[in-house]
Specification:
Layout lengths: L6 H33 L3 H29 L3 H16 L6 H7 L6 H35 L5 H22 L8 H25 L12 H7 L3 H6 L1 H20 L3 H8 L5 H26 L1 H21 L3 H28 L6 H27 L4 E4 L5 E4 L3 H11 L1 H6 L8
Antiparallel strand pairs: 1-2
Helix pairs in contact: 1-5, 1-6, 1-7, 2-5, 2-8, 2-15, 3-5, 3-7, 5-15, 6-12, 6-14, 10-14, 10-15, 10-16, 12-13, 12-14, 13-14, 13-16
Amino acid sequence: MKTKLSGRFWLALTLFSLIGQVAWVVENMYFNVFIYNMFRATPSDISAMVAASAVAAAVTTVLMGALSDRLGRRKAFICGGYILWGITIFAFTFLREDIVGGLFPMAASVSALCVTLTIILDCVMTFFGSTANDAAFNAWLTDSTDASNRGAAEGINAMMPLVAILAVFGGFMFVDLSGEAGWQTVFTVIGGVVILVGVLGIFLIREPEIRPSETGCLGNIIYGFRPSTVRANARLYLYLAAFAVFNISIQIFMPYLIIYYEKSLGMADYVLIMAPAVILASVFTALWGKMYDRRGFRFSAAVAVLCLMAGYVLLYLTRGRLPVFLGSLLMMCGYLAGMAVFGAVIRDHTPVGMAGRFQGLRIVFQVLIPGFVGPAIGAWVLRNAEYITNSDGTTSFLPNANIFLAALVAAAVLMPLFIRRSGKTSQ
């Protein structure tokens, strides 16, 4: 029997998932553009920022997920975290060369110092974001669903990254992001929206019925890393390992995607090209989550990964608007469908009443490992990238299509190592 979820649940899921992903889009895709445009960042700078943020996300989720299990509370972490998350996003409005140069007049390079400060503030922002979203919200989602409806809920949750991309791209399509004024608009608006959602959550979110764990915080923190836990949940760890490979593939190209469209392909109007692909991929993902409920993991994951790989092939081989659109559509469909399927199967195999402490483990495989490995591979692939001279005499690198070839190789690893061996429960 399928458990029916309330309208209030679907509203909370949609609102908090969407706005959380909007904030992550600003971090994962726009911070790279921010330090590229404003401070002339290098591939190594971008790789370092992604890696540092991944460490902050993983450590935060492990600690705060364990604490939320210990207290048996999710709501306070979600609402308070979103409010503080929004405040730290707004704080980026003060990261400007004139302000930083005035505070640190002896700095050898104000641009390099701004890059460093961006990375530091990004980690602070990630602490609050991971507390609210990665640890508490995802644990709340696991607590509030069961095996009969998890695929449908995860389909909505997994489509939100692309809906968020569409919202951010569309919302700021006419904002000039080559100067300080545009970035102040982005950080002010997004910060304010995240704060507002945190306040609304006080009235909207229902605390799930969970008992505080009997073990202390330290026991909760290390629980998922114990060999005995791994042995008792071997299938879960297999899914997590495959999820890491999947996200490594994504992180090879994702930090450079907007720069590639705009600078390398010369598509200044990339938003108009991407918007239809985002909409179609979001609809596909919402439906694909239900496919997981009906057909199980093996079929739904195999189709998602093959779709992702087909997108990579098109993006690697083509430069025209139509094939780039088709490649982007396939890539995004595979990416989000894969996120939905992996998210659902991991929740299905998470021990009951332990969602908080396992969120940290999920982030290790979803964010920490891919956040180090993926961007490092991307930076290595772009080590000999072409450089252009900007109007102010500085230089900037141009990402090339080799990032999609490297991502294709990483995704191909999933086929023999995972898809043939695993499935939902016994499938």
